[in-house]
């Protein structure tokens, strides 16, 4: 089994999770070697052209059939491909829960929101409740000011964004809807007790690291040995390079953390991580085709676009593979399983990593 894994992403707009043009972030990875990659891409390689890019190809109708041919290749299999996709607007609601609701649960209610899927359920409730707020401009002001607060470097401007957010929050809580009052009230409680999670790190809202973490954990399960990661040039992955090395540190005792079906094994089995230019790697170009076709498909579906190419994509072998992990509203909500989780033992992933950071990383 090839232990070189190739990654590329599509729809990356960093910490801007309200980007309407790119509402989904996709990270695709595979471990096809050069010969296998050329075999899969043969229909496209047979036609003279520059670097293979899905979006350049799909603009030309005669190229679309060739893309379909590639995505129907018999080599495509869940043991060779891992795809993760994040719905950005929903991811922003997840960040609100993570930074403004979870601290209240942890420090005041003494509850672990990860257990029993409480964080996931709460984010879904907030996402649904936004549709019950008739003033759409108000909910956009609420989300934009929260996002700007965590993206802003200037302290004075950041304080202004925080005040804008609190003004919008107070207006939302005046709405005559019991659900809105109750669940947005938890956000106010976090502010009341001074539990705001202050901005510290760049890309603190971005889900790239989470999706990369999930993918590498999955590759550890598939390969059951150390592997090398080759990622298309990415500012986020470059920024998190030291942290990724820490999560792969062999001094960390092998431990299964998390709850239910949201468990991960640390340390990650990454042997080395290298950022490379897609122009020099046909394997990265294949990862781009996987990532960009998935992004295109999800974006068109979100926008309810009448595009016959979507139907053709959905019928391909690639899109029928069950190797997709999605962070999106309404997914992975199994209340019966969540109830069972509450009775089970488990290790909180954040607590575990923090302990390991203090033990091995900060002391170096």
Secondary-structure topology with pairs:
Blueprint: E1 4-10, E2 24-30, H1 34-40, H2 42-45, H3 54-58, H4 61-70, E3 81-87, H5 88-107, H6 118-129, H7 136-151, H8 155-173, H9 178-192, H10 208-223, E4 227-232, H11 235-239, H12 241-247, E5 255-257, E6 264-266, E7 270-276, H13 282-302, H14 308-314, H15 317-320, E8 324-327, H16 335-343, H17 349-361
Helix pairs in contact: 5-6, 5-9, 6-9, 7-8, 8-9
Q: Summed up, what is this model?
A:
With 364 residues, the chain is α/β, with parallel strands linked by helices.
CATH architecture of the largest domain: 2-Layer Sandwich
Order of neighbouring strands in the sheet with most strands: 7-4-1-2-3-8
Q: In the CATH hierarchy, what is the class of the largest domain?
A: Alpha Beta
Measure the end-to-end span.
35 Å
Derived structural class: alpha/beta
Summarize the main sheet.
6 strands, mixed
Share in β-strands: 5-15%
- Give me the strand/helix succession: EEHHHHEHHHHHHEHHEEEHHHEHH
Low-confidence stretches: none
Total beta strand runs: 8
Q: Report the average pLDDT across residues.
A: 92
Helix content range of the residues, please? 40-55%
